Amino acid sequence: MNAELLAVGFGLLSAISWGAGDFGGGLASRRAHPYAVTVLVSATGLLLFTLLALLRGETFFPRDVGWAVLAGASGALGLLSLYRAFTAGQMGLAAPVAGVTGAVLPVLLGAALEGLPGGLQLLGFGMGLLGVWLASRPEGAVRPAGLTWALLAGLGFGGYFALIDRVEGLFWPSAIAKLTALALTLAYALLKRPERWPRLRELPLVGLAGALDAGGNLFFLAAAQSGRLDVAAVVSSLYPASTVLLARAVLNERLRPAQGLGVLLSLGAIALISAG
């Protein structure tokens, strides 16, 4: 199978898994504190990746550690910020803004290392910027809630895409990244002392969110190792489509017409950047 086609396939699996996981984690964050949910999601991913690495007998590459630690820190920032954005505002608005922002950084890196992007990608950039502007336009004097967190989430995810691409392994680097995310988010949660951790009946939702988030990480890494980083990152950044559809179906979220157009343009921008 063509390497780029394989990268697109893994990227789509990553997008589906990440989008559903983000919705589950965001839903849990509305019932418990986002810091607490991020800790448990990271712990679930660490457990899964460690078990898979041991079962597979994967070779451990010491040179992967530094990149995995940096990727884990950036991913933790992205996930925590996304949950905060979901808690503060609408999932259907925050997810596409984070998706476009996260897709731009790896493409810019790819342009620096491998040349300028094509015409469709440049069109996608312009469409994405317009989409983010429309989605984030204030209604009167009110700025959409959670926008700053959504932008910060995108920067965190973009950093994760660029950094985890440098590793050679699969499960061990992912486990190290999750261990880093767990350590950072746990320390921050203990410092902030969240008012409420998920209750027993909410743990299955958090566990499912953690498993889906881990699946998204795994499929992205497989996509990045199969083809170009920018292709893998942009296709994986289609994850807001899953989040938006679930938020519409489950939470009955409604956006203003301009915001809805901005969301559609943001999703279209990701598709154009990928096609380019």
Automatic annotation (TrEMBL):
Pfam families: EamA. Residues 7-136, 146-274 form the EamA domain. The chain crosses the membrane at residues 6-28, 35-55, 67-86, 93-113, 119-135, 147-164, 170-191, 203-225, 231-251, 258-275. Keywords: Membrane, Transmembrane, Transmembrane helix. The keyword Disulfide bond does not apply. Coiled coil: none annotated. GO terms for cellular component: membrane. The keyword Membrane applies. It comes from the Bacteria. This is Carboxylate/amino acid/amine transporter.
